[in-house]
Amino acid sequence: MVKNRTHSIDFKRQIAQDYLAGEPLHSLAKRHDLSRNLIRIWVRKYEAGALDDDTAAAALLQEYEARIAALERLVGKQALELEFLKGALKHTPRQRSAPTSAITGAVVSPSQKDVD
Asked: Which of 13, 20, 39, 109 has the fewest CB atoms within 10 Å of its CB?
């Protein structure tokens, strides 16, 4: 048997309905290359209503809400970092004669050899 496959809700629902309609567990498992225990789990979930479209939509919504919450936390953290860096930049003394261009860089002081 192949491991770690994912099956759609519709597929799981169809397997559970086939089993409940009277198809033997062994033939279902063999035809779809599934574990009999997995089919039993799907049947229990189907009977409990966990394979309904509304349940699947609710699970997807919950997943999206968790992702949104994680992204909001990240945005908040980045906003705090920006505010901290802006504050640090305001309190850093800047020399009036220093160039402000990143391309030219800092002013190089002459060496003793050049002065003599």
From this structure: 109
Backbone angles phi, psi at 66, to 5 degrees: -65, -40
Matching CATH number, 1-51, of 1.10.3230, 3.30.160, 1.10.10, 1.25.40: 1.10.10
Contacts (Cβ under 8 Å, ≥6 apart) of 56: 9
Q: What is the DSSP letter of 108?
A: P
pLDDT digits (tens, 9 = 90+) for 60-71: 888 999 999 999
| Residue 4 φ then ψ, to 5° | 60, 40
Question: What per-residue string of b and e applies to 82-101 under the rule 16 or more CB within 10 Å gives b?
Answer: eeeeeeeeeeeeeeeeeeee
Q: Could you say which residues of the chain have pLDDT below 70?
A: 1-3, 94-116
pTM listed for this prediction: 0.47
